[in-house]
Amino acid sequence: MKPKIPAQAGTFESSDVIVLIEPLPDKAGRKIEISSSVMQQFGESFTKIVIDLLDQFEMTDIHLIAKDKGALEPTIKARLETAIKRSLDLQEGTLKQ
């Protein structure tokens, strides 16, 4: 699936993560940018969570930016899923017009 619209989920607050998604042109693949205050300890795990969820939704041609402030795994998954569903126009969100 390809994102239809830009979407976001989460906040910049401590113990949270903000996820931003933008559609890319056809056949552009995935562009993933992750920054985290705990990247050294959990960066590999965070990246795996992102890739696994994108694979689960069969997402292609996507630019995903995740800025983490120490969120726990369930929070990361929830924010990612929400942003993905919003980008597919399956769920209303903050950037829905």
Descriptive report:
The model has no long low-confidence stretch (mean pLDDT 92). The longest helix has 18 residues, at 39-56. This protein has a four-stranded mixed sheet, covered by helices on one side. The protein is built from two helices and four strands. Helix 1 runs parallel beside helix 2. With 97 residues, the protein is an alpha+beta fold. It has a single domain (7-87), classed as Ribosomal Protein S5, domain 2.
- The helix/strand class is alpha+beta
Helix content: 25-40%
Overall average residue pLDDT: 92
Instruction: Please give the CATH architecture.
Output: 2-Layer Sandwich
What count of structural domains? Answer: 1
The CATH topology name reads Ribosomal Protein S5, domain 2
Largest sheet: 4 strands, mixed
What features would you highlight for this structure?
97 residues, alpha+beta, Ribosomal Protein S5, domain 2, 4 strands
In brief:
With 97 residues, this protein is of the alpha+beta class. The chain has helices spanning 39-56, 73-87; strands at 7-9, 17-23, 30-36, 62-68.
What topology does this entry show?
Layout: E1 7-9, E2 17-23, E3 30-36, H1 39-56, E4 62-68, H2 73-87
Parallel strand pairs: 3-4
Antiparallel strand pairs: 1-2, 2-4
Helix pairs in contact: 1-2
